[in-house]
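Structure first, sequence second, as always.
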């Protein structure tokens, strides 16, 4: 896993906190749920211009669809941000 440098602290494994194994399990389970459940389900949504054209004055303008598509791209970027966050933690805990 190759990730960019983070601007936040990563957990320090010590006697008073969670074990390395427990933290690895939590972050790995979260990454799995994101990739194999949330992202897969999100990508299964049938996203098509036909669902948006009635919202526009001109049914051939695709204005509403383009706005919805831009928002969808923001959501996919948010998924990528979460994935990167989880991968950084897993990589750190593997050291």
């Amino acid at each position: 896993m190759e990730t960019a440098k983070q601007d936040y602290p990563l957990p320090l494994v010590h006697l008073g906190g969670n074990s390395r194994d427990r933290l690895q399990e939590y972050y790995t389970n979260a990454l799995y749920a994101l990739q194999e459940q949330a992202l897969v389900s999100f990508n299964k949504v049938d996203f098509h211009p036909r669902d948006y054209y009635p919202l526009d004055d001109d049914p051939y303008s695709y204005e509403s669809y383009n706005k919805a598509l831009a928002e969808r791209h923001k959501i996919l970027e948010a998924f990528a941000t979460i994935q990167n966050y989880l991968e950084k933690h897993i990589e750190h805990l593997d050291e």
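Margin note: Residues 20-94 form one domain.
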